[in-house]
Amino acid sequence: MQMGMIGLGRMGGNMVKRLREGGHEIVGFDMNPESGRDVDSLEALVASLAAPRIVWVMVPAGAATDSTVNQLGELLEAGDIVVDGGNSKYTDDRIHAAALADKGIGFLDCGVSGGVWGAERGYALMIGGEDATYETVKPIFETLKPEGEYGLVHAGPVGGGHFAKMVHNGIEYGMMQAFGEGFATMMRSEYVTNPAQTMDSWRSGSVVASWLLDLFENATADDPELKDVPAVANESGEARWMVEAALELGVPTPATAAALWQRQTSRGGADDILRTVTALRAQFGGHVTKVDEIATH
Amino acid sequence: MQMGMIGLGRMGGNMVKRLREGGHEIVGFDMNPESGRDVDSLEALVASLAAPRIVWVMVPAGAATDSTVNQLGELLEAGDIVVDGGNSKYTDDRIHAAALADKGIGFLDCGVSGGVWGAERGYALMIGGEDATYETVKPIFETLKPEGEYGLVHAGPVGGGHFAKMVHNGIEYGMMQAFGEGFATMMRSEYVTNPAQTMDSWRSGSVVASWLLDLFENATADDPELKDVPAVANESGEARWMVEAALELGVPTPATAAALWQRQTSRGGADDILRTVTALRAQFGGHVTKVDEIATH
Amino acid sequence: MQMGMIGLGRMGGNMVKRLREGGHEIVGFDMNPESGRDVDSLEALVASLAAPRIVWVMVPAGAATDSTVNQLGELLEAGDIVVDGGNSKYTDDRIHAAALADKGIGFLDCGVSGGVWGAERGYALMIGGEDATYETVKPIFETLKPEGEYGLVHAGPVGGGHFAKMVHNGIEYGMMQAFGEGFATMMRSEYVTNPAQTMDSWRSGSVVASWLLDLFENATADDPELKDVPAVANESGEARWMVEAALELGVPTPATAAALWQRQTSRGGADDILRTVTALRAQFGGHVTKVDEIATH
Amino acid sequence: MQMGMIGLGRMGGNMVKRLREGGHEIVGFDMNPESGRDVDSLEALVASLAAPRIVWVMVPAGAATDSTVNQLGELLEAGDIVVDGGNSKYTDDRIHAAALADKGIGFLDCGVSGGVWGAERGYALMIGGEDATYETVKPIFETLKPEGEYGLVHAGPVGGGHFAKMVHNGIEYGMMQAFGEGFATMMRSEYVTNPAQTMDSWRSGSVVASWLLDLFENATADDPELKDVPAVANESGEARWMVEAALELGVPTPATAAALWQRQTSRGGADDILRTVTALRAQFGGHVTKVDEIATH
């Protein structure tokens, strides 16, 4: 079927390729003239599609998505559908859907997992929105998803797709943290000679066999002790939002949060806590507080 | 090759079956006369094997393993080999190995993952011990492991097999906790209509695809909200040992520990903490402390 | 000086008493006719005060405070001042202040600590708002605070008082959790004969000497093992808000969150996590999942 | 009464001073000739005391204490008493007590809190051992403790004093972490102008009033943002031992452990976890992994 794609970066570009290979007619637009876009403006994109139109937004969450959805609200007509495939916060979806609904434009939010591997392996998709809207866009989803019975779910009403993706990413944080804790423990122990090789061996037959473990073998193939990887990690929002959502729902998420905090700590987030602790220790115990002395105590 | 197996329970019994199907000659012994054992005493087991003998111990960790290894130290001869395939603590392995070494008996510790699925899927094996000893028993390991290049590792010196298995189980705790946190968050939210179906969809294409997620689909097939499963969980030692080992190595393991503590809490471990909190709140705030009042505040 | 007090419950009522003893003229109003109120409506309250008026709002945070502040916005005049002494979220303060500022009415947010002991011991006060407004109300604050140099701070601009109080309460959660963890550990150990007596002994000379420890002695005086206190605790919002605020600021707060989660867990918040863990264990390990069996494993 | 003191460092030296001011006759020994010692060998110390002797050991826990206790076992006679006032692990106490008991020598373990302030403020003491032995040494304890009814407890049998001190220090870790989390959250927020001043204000009237908060004012007097204090902290064992003891007792201690892990992380303990996370993110998402790029994402 025909669809417009806004945003032709790493994710959007790969998705267009997979969709075209699946027989869909995709008109692509991106702000960047070097992106290989088919049209050079949102107006031209909308004009090039036959009504009722489907437009997929694949731009950074927040201001860029807000702005794009607002412009589409001006340009599209009743009966058209906007799909937000970015990493928007689930609470934004209701705002976007309501604004578009005022003009009779449908809305779906779509969480997309799979990263750079999705082009080949297929993307895991989680959709939020009304049944009829979902059914209209389903042929697109069917092409993007992996082969087989998994990889696509109509998770719930508007917001449900991004809520599910948020939870998915929170789980991902927790799993990576768990693997990291295990690897780090083996790295410091005299009992395990080659921690990376040991982790690789778990890819078959073990309870922890997983795609992340498959990737771990790739990651350590040339650098089994990860010596060239910095001991610092960023966070991109989803785990934070999940912990916050769970806090409000009364659900404890200590493993997810531990993973998030480890990353925030690596960026200096705990520095003032440590300063407090060290300053207090110096007060009551006469403990050393200079860095070079600490290094030897 | 020929081997004696001590302990014919769920794990040992299935392993014997897989080994026999792989062409090995296994003599089985178990304390329980109903176990389908081939011989009715340790003495008879040893007598039925040709030197140099290999004896695999697959009994509960702790006293049962200690006692079995000690008896084997009396019955076996120099050149024989004992393999401890149970869930022994890695620190016990060095004690067992040293005692056996005094008599010239070799020792390997073998962590085994795969649970009840191992009989069919193969067992992930992690071995600790000397190279020569490992090479001698390797044909047995090759039969027990899954097909393909993964599932078997010579992890390190004596203790390394159980250390690796301990870490493996700690990771398993963290992963299950991560999935649980995600499922629980979706269960309480109005955004996701069917949390179990959403989790199932991640089995292909997503970053969290894993064998545990495959099992989750089985677990929720007839009970998608897990209403028939008690909200209480046991712990079996490995994660606890891992957290302790990591503490001594200076490695933080907050996700692993979170998983462990959740289980300890479900068994009442935090009750006195909560009593302290509620008693203090009543002191400074005049907060209610009776259970029925708490239920409505 | 003259001031109106709205809300004559446990906190408001005690504060009125302390203010009158300090020589202030307080006009009290409460929705409840049995409250000992001086006037029977907000209109009457406002009418009974000479301009420029100061009105202290001491009602539950959320809808009740919103409604009261809105009504005061209608009834008061330019130059009057509203003080919100409840447990409002700091983000609400900016909304309230802006709405009142449109009419020339000043606003201060005031976090109040001290609980039922404040009447006698004095209240610790944290104020947010503009300097001139703060200076106007300062005589009231000076009477409410404890004697001596501590107990009153102009923490920052509007919202700063409740932000500081939120952080204060988060710290309080962490401290109570710390005491609880220590008490619970001693309760299960054979090494300490009388944990409550041991905790009491720390009231002098030790690093952990604190008002909470003083209260602990009261709490355990007649029930040294806290056997009559339920192992369940509520949470009232501030620690949750603090963890959320810190997450957005990139500051890890694991101790504060641990305290909060323990309480949420005691109310069933982790039940679906535990169900997931136990269901998965049953899948891969054939572990028991019935409650009565768990109880003996 | 008469007593020998072994170890005249910061703690031991101050204690001798306080004991002498209290009228006791103390003979001091230290390995260091510059320590102001009264005798120059353990033999001379023992010879200078009238039987039945009391000897207080105030040297570093571990090898130094083991060695000193062993030597005293050789030099002392039945009826003498050894007090270990260092930070020994509670499990060592039973070993020391048993070895001394073989020769009829009594043993008490004594946890000491109060740091450099103890000389003036008095030391909080927690004692483990038999009743009769405790009663014999009690006049010493009464002089060391603060004035008033608190500061001294006979916590339990041998090991109980150090177990109680270990728990005390674990609580101390949790409290400092709680204060640190609050301070750090305020430091990053625009709502609180002067976090240190706000914390100081809580010294009276608030729920978190405590000796640590008193010390915090000292610590921030000349450096309110703690800019001269390194963001790194050491750990000295007790909190680690407490978390381990609690793990074995089935008691979760997330706040205590959070404090400990923060310190271990500041010393690089989580580096391999972060490397794992960042390496995996690079695999599935094409995320940047170079430090300078991370700094701007």
From TrEMBL, chains A, B, C, D:
Keywords: Gluconate utilization, Oxidoreductase. The keyword Oxidoreductase applies. Pfam families: 6PGD (PF00393), NAD_binding_2 (PF03446). Gene3D superfamilies: N-(1-d-carboxylethyl)-l-norvaline Dehydrogenase, domain 2, NAD(P)-binding Rossmann-like Domain. Belongs to the 6-phosphogluconate dehydrogenase family. Belongs to the HIBADH-related family. The active site is at 165. It comes from Bifidobacterium oedipodis. Residues 161-294 form the 6-phosphogluconate dehydrogenase C-terminal domain. Signal peptide: none annotated. The keyword Oxidoreductase applies. PROSITE patterns: 3_HYDROXYISOBUT_DH. One of its GO terms (biological process) is organic acid catabolic process. The lineage of its organism: Bacteria, Bacillati, Actinomycetota, Actinomycetes, Bifidobacteriales. One of its GO terms (molecular function) is NADP binding. This is 6-phosphogluconate dehydrogenase.
